[in-house]
Design brief:
With 294 residues, the protein is of the alpha/beta class. It has helices at residues 49-52, 80-91, 104-114, 138-141, 148-155, 159-173, 182-192, 197-208, 243-251, 267-270, 272-293; strands at residues 4-10, 13-20, 31-35, 57-61, 97-102, 121-127, 209-210, 213-214, 229-234, 255-260. It has an 8-stranded mixed sheet with strand order 1-2-4-3-5-6-9-10, sandwiched between helices. Strands 7-8 form a two-stranded antiparallel sheet.
């Protein structure tokens, strides 16, 4: 499967994205938009994107401040990412899409689905999503302390700091870091080499959580979601507890829950086969419903 690298202008920002599958259009029943998590890029979807693209048009943007997209110099406020996703759809001329979001990307997907442009969302898949509860790995909340985040950003630019960062992310994100594909480590290494990236990511982190945990929470609004929603979670997630998945599933009116066994914070990287086994029946139902209305 040929995955193409593209760019598009979104609100004066140059946004890089990956594209695969048949072209979007009136004969294409569903377009998938994949939103990566914090500290990642669109390449995090490389282990599931080819199979999804066998049937669907699949787009995976580098969110602003990540990957190859423009940095935003810390201009992040509540709801910012949700608005960006809607504007991205405008820029690539997609009227409606199924939005699949991981961690930070899950919060962005939720924000879009819950705002006044939410009718553009056909369905949601939330993968170890942010925004569903206060609890968060304490190591991340330390980044909000004055001075410590800045020092950590500078340290991560040194060779030993880079290695420590890679090891820390792997042990935090995966149940079995030793089994993670080497490409993920290489992606992380090259991300860390981009000037200004860590500063932007620190600004994002401080906009989303404080010393007590997550601060941007939409849990109480989940009953307002009008679309089918699949909540997927690794059962050994050390970043955001799996209890958030169970609580969210109880609140979503048209929700399904899929817990990925023996898996950490990134099921689409660590357990791509199980991830697709959970996701594909959900997408098949959406496609069937879309076909019956056409």
């Amino acid at each position: 499967m040929n995955i193409k690298s593209r760019t598009v202008r979104v609100n004066h920002l140059c946004i890089h994205y990956l594209s695969a599958g048949p072209p979007a259009g009136p004969n294409q029943d569903i377009t998938l938009v994949l939103l990566h998590g914090g500290g990642e890029s669109a390449l995090a979807w490389r282990w599931v994107m080819p199979r999804l693209a066998e049937r669907f048009c699949v787009l995976a943007p580098d969110l602003p401040g990540s990957g190859k997209s423009d940095l935003v110099a810390g201009k992040y406020v509540a709801g910012w990412y949700g608005s960006f996703v809607a504007d991205f759809l405008d820029a690539v001329q997609i009227e409606r899409a199924v939005v699949i979001g991981h961690s930070l990307g899950g919060l962005a997907a939720l924000e879009m689905a819950l705002d006044d442009r939410g009718e553009r969302v056909r369905g949601l898949a939330l993968v170890d999503s942010a925004g569903l509860g206060r609890e968060l790995n304490p190591a991340l909340t330390l980044m909000t302390l004055p001075g410590l985040g800045e020092w950590s950003t500078l340290w991560a630019l040194t060779p030993p700091g880079q290695l420590q960062r890679l090891g820390g992310r792997a042990s935090g994100c995966f149940a079995h870091p030793e089994q993670v594909p080497a490409e993920w480590y290489l992606d992380q290494f090259w991300l860390g080499m981009r000037p200004g990236l860590f500063g932007d990511q620190l600004a994002v982190s401080r906009s989303l959580f404080d010393h007590q945990g997550q601060s941007e929470i939409v849990l109480d609004r989940l009953s307002d979601l009008p679309v089918p929603t699949l909540i997927m979670w690794g059962d050994s997630d050390q970043i955001i507890p799996v209890a958030h998945a169970h609580e969210a599933a109880r609140r979503v009116r048209r929700g399904q829950l899929a817990i990925i066994p023996d898996c950490g914070h990134m099921p689409h990287v660590e357990r791509p086969g199980l991830f697709l086994e959970a996701l594909e029946p959900f997408l098949a139902k959406l496609a069937s419903a879309s076909g019956s209305r056409s």
